[in-house]
Structures are given as C-alpha cells and as structure tokens.
C-alpha cells in the first residue's frame, strides 16, 4: 500500500512537470511570434485584416512590393489614396526580405494614415510549376504569380482589385471597384482590342494583342484548346475579381494545372509576350471575363522608350500602366511626369530614381 502511494506521488509530480512544460512552451511560442506585418502605430487605427462584417464599406486593393521596386508600389498607393474619398484597404504582398523596407516607407512618409496589411507570399508554392528562364528573369519573380492565389491570401472580401506595381491611378478607385461582373464571371479585365486610340502606338512597337502572341500554336496542347489565335488577349496586371466565384470555379487550381503543364511540355515561355504569368490567365479566362471600361487600363506605356500617347488622351485615362521593360522609375521611359507626380522619396534612400543626371 505504501509503495502504491509512493508511485502515485511520483506520477503526480511527473504530471505537474509535464503541465508546466506545456504551459511554458505555449507561452514561449506566443511571446516570440513576430508583430503582425503592417501593424499600425497610430492610436485608434488598425491594420489587422478586417472581419467579414467590416468589409462592406472598404475597397480592398491587392498590390505586390518587391524589394527592388518598393518605391513603385508606394507611387501606385499614393495615386490611389490621393484620388478618392473612399475607404481603401491596401493588402501589400511581398517576400520576407522586403517587409523591413515597406513599413518605414509608409510610416515615415505622407502615406502614414493609409489602412494596410503586409502579407508574406511563400514562393515554395511555385515549386514544380515555374522553370528558370533567362530571357526576361523579371517576369519569373515569385510575386508575379500572387494574382493566381487571391483566395489563399486569407482576406475577407467578396470582391477585390488586383493591381501591378507599375500603374498609376488617375481616376477614383471606387468607380473601378463598382464594376458589375456578369453572372458566372470570376474577373473583369480590359480587352486588348477595346482601345482604338492605342492601336497605332501598339502596332508601332510590336506589342501583341491576340492569343497568337502568347501561346505556341505549334504545340498540340494549345491547338486542342480551340482558341482562335486571332482572338483578342487581355492584360492581367489590372483586374477586379469576384473571390467567391473564383473559389467556386477553382480558378487557382486551373491556373496551377496549366503552370505544371508548361513545366512539363513548355507550351509557352517567357520569351513570348507576357512571360509565363500571362498565358495561364489567358487560357483559363478565355471568353469568361467581364470587360472593363477601356480608360481604366491604358497600357503598353513601358513597351518602348519612343512610343508616346497624345497628352489629351493620357489626361482622360483613369489608369496608366507601364507594362513592358521600360519602367518610369528607370531611364529611358515615356511620360515620366505623369508617374513622378505620385512618387514619394524613400526615407531610407534605398530606392531612388534613375535619370540622365543620376549617378545611380
């Protein structure tokens, strides 16, 4: 009997020790978690992801910020914030190394009052889906594929706006957000054939506006799609997405399937227009998207340093997109003044403009 009591006391002590270790481990994990990305310091304001019940009056904008182009992202955000009285919530998606640059860029500049959240994208989801390609390495940056994974960002919105970092918004972003998507459509894009005013410019620089420029029709897998090579393409750098419809149609999985198919069969490459991020979107959304009003995506400004649009036309544009290799923060590029008016200097000095008199 005495031996049994002794054993029970030992077991009790072991149980207490295990409980203490468990509590200590739980506390340690909680205390060493990083501060949520984008945590605001302004009293009374929050940058936590809004709950579903709080999202009805917000306009969610998803935009990426790579370490080498963080100043471009801030210019886009500034242009949006300066041209609307709507309540905009910015989801800034980046890789881990850039988080330390983004927060002070916002907190120490005129952007300090915006509502935002920094989300880290895990590039490991692209393993086995993207091949290295040296012709346009910038197009293979992991953040180029964030647009494929919108429902996986953990945000609570029925509809979102996705923007590339090389755009400037001159109109009121709420007008873009209020576009009504047709039943069964998961996204709204601007067709490459919808803007006659740009056709002469686009043709002069050899920019592709049809599926022929993005898919390799010599491949049987492409021909079996039944897509006319002369069908108008669209640019996926600016779009409005119905997140619920995106989930129902399993758009992310469809996009991943085409990425994996290209990884195996090389049915398109970054040597073609749009790199490897555009073709899956063109395939999955062919004849299944709502058309945006053309002035909400005036593009190809970065395709050539010699392609100039009429100034009156650019003033009427709601959104300008410097897609192509000639970015407005570098040199040469066109219509630099329209981009620079929204540029905010980097308080850390790490991001700077490249100009003819620059030593950088």
UniProtKB/TrEMBL annotation:
Q: Which UniProt keywords apply?
A: Glycosyltransferase, Signal, Transferase
Q: Kindly give the Gene3D superfamilies that the UniProt entry links to this protein.
A: Spore Coat Polysaccharide Biosynthesis Protein SpsA, Chain A
The family database entries (Pfam families) matched by this protein are listed as: Glyco_transf_8 (PF01501)
Give a Gene Ontology cellular component term annotated to this protein: Golgi apparatus
A GO term for molecular function: UDP-glycosyltransferase activity
State the similarity comment. Answer: Belongs to the glycosyltransferase 8 family.
**Name assigned to this protein:** Glycosyltransferase 8 domain-containing protein 2
Q: So which domain of life are we looking at?
A: Eukaryota
Q: What is the organism of origin for this protein?
A: Channa argus (Northern snakehead)
Q: Which InterPro entries does the entry link to? A: Glyco_trans_8, Glycosyltrans_8_dom-fam, Nucleotide-diphossugar_trans
PANTHER family linked to this entry: GLYCOSYLTRANSFERASE 8 DOMAIN-CONTAINING PROTEIN, GLYCOSYLTRANSFERASE 8 DOMAIN-CONTAINING PROTEIN 2
Q: Which residues form the signal peptide?
A: 1-30
Q: Does the keyword Transcription apply?
A: no
Query: Has the keyword Signal been applied to this entry?
Result: yes
């Amino acid at each position: 009997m005495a031996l049994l009591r002794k054993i029970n006391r030992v077991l009790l002590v072991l149980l207490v020790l295990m409980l203490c270790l468990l509590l200590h481990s739980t506390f340690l994990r909680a205390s060493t978690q990083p501060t949520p990305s984008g945590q605001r310091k302004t009293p009374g304001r929050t940058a936590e992801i809004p709950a579903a019940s709080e999202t009805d009056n917000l306009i969610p904008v998803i935009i990426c910020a790579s370490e080498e182009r963080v100043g471009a992202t801030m210019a886009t955000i500034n242009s949006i914030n300066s041209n609307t009285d709507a309540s905009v919530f910015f989801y800034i998606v980046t890789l881990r190394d850039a988080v330390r640059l983004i927060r002070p860029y916002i907190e120490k500049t005129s952007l300090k009052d915006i509502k935002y959240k920094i989300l880290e994208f895990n590039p490991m989801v692209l393993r086995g889906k993207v091949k290295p390609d040296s012709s346009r390495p910038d197009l293979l940056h992991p953040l180029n594929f964030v647009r494929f994974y919108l429902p996986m960002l953990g945000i609570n919105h029925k509809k979102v706006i996705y923007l590339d970092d090389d755009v400037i918004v001159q109109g009121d972003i709420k007008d873009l957000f209020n576009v009504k998507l047709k039943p069964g459509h998961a996204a709204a894009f601007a067709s490459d054939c919808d803007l006659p005013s740009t056709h002469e410019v686009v043709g002069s620089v050899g920019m592709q506006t049809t599926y022929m420029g993005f898919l390799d029709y010599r491949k049987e897998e492409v021909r079996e799609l039944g897509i006319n090579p002369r069908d108008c393409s669209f640019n996926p750098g600016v779009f409005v997405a119905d997140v619920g419809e995106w989930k129902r149609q399993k758009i992310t999985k469809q996009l991943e399937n085409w990425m994996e198919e290209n990884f195996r069969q090389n049915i398109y490459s970054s040597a073609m227009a749009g790199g490897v991020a555009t073709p899956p979107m063109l395939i999955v959304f062919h004849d299944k998207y709502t058309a945006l009003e053309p002035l909400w995506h005036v593009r190809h400004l970065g395709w050539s340093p010699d392609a100039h649009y009429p100034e009156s036309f650019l003033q009427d544009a709601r959104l300008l997109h410097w897609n192509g290799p000639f970015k407005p923060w570098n040199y040469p590029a066109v219509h630099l003044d329209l981009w620079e008016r929204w540029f905010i200097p980097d308080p850390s000095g790490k991001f700077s403009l490249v100009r003819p008199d620059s030593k950088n």
